[in-house]
Write a structure and sequence with these properties.
The protein has about 200 residues and is mainly α. The chain has six helices and no strands. The protein has one domain: Formiminotetrahydrofolate cyclodeaminase monomer, up-and-down helical bundle (Four Helix Bundle (Hemerythrin (Met), subunit A), Up-down Bundle), CATH 1.20.120.680. The longest helix has about 40 residues.
Length: about 200
């Protein structure tokens, strides 16, 4: 499992000639780091003098960010597995018409799955940004830049994941699927960029 590698092992594997982990897995990793930073800011606020009024909010943020982090870590492997499934489909036999049909269906199913996983990462990264924003606004001011970095990482993770969605859409023949996902991409891109601007406006250094 990629998510079980040490940081150094992950970096070396990413730099190798192997196509996985690729951009999708790195996007999920970035999102998981954003979740960890968000959780950290919340934990640094809990039980801190002067932040008693935000105690319950920070506990909720810490819990939600932790759950997001776990899911993003799983997505690192899900993205790599989806890529491998697509590659396996391309290697299916295509000598007869029936084999060609089976192969093409497998390729399309694989591509849609390969698009759906990073799309999910992007959606959840956008949701995480809400918690990162609250951590920046209400959390321990000594960790405000950590919350800001969490928001920035989450935005980058979302936009990076959406690039991986787009490249898969280019090969998907289901026009309805492509149209629906393309609209979601546009909405998410605008959403995360605006969220980041709003959050960073709270940081006065």
């Amino acid at each position: 499992m990629l998510s079980g590698l040490t940081i150094q092992e992950f970096l070396l594997k990413t730099a190798s000639h192997s196509p996985v982990p690729g951009g999708g897995s790195v996007a999920a990793l970035s999102a998981s780091l954003a979740a960890s930073l968000t959780e950290m800011v919340a934990n640094l606020t809990i039980n801190k003098k002067g932040y008693e009024g935000f105690e319950q909010e920070m506990k909720t943020i810490a819990k939600e960010a932790h759950q997001f982090g776990k899911k993003f870590a799983q997505d690192i492997d899900k993205d790599a597995n989806a890529y491998n499934e697509v590659m396996s489909a391309y290697h299916l036999p295509k000598d007869t018409q029936e084999e060609k049909k089976i192969r093409q269906e497998a390729i399309q199913d694989g591509l849609m799955q390969a698009a759906s996983i990073p799309l999910d990462v992007a959606k959840n990264a956008a949701k995480l940004m809400v918690f990162a924003g609250k951590a920046v606004e209400q959390g321990n001011k000594n960790a405000i830049t950590d919350g800001a970095v969490a928001a920035m990482m989450a935005k980058t993770a979302a936009l990076s994941a959406l690039y991986n969605v787009k490249i898969n859409l280019n090969s998907i023949t289901d026009e309805i699927f492509v149209e629906e996902v393309s609209k979601q991409i546009k909405d998410l891109e605008v959403d995360v960029v605006n969220k980041e601007k709003e959050i960073l406006s709270l940081v006065d250094l």
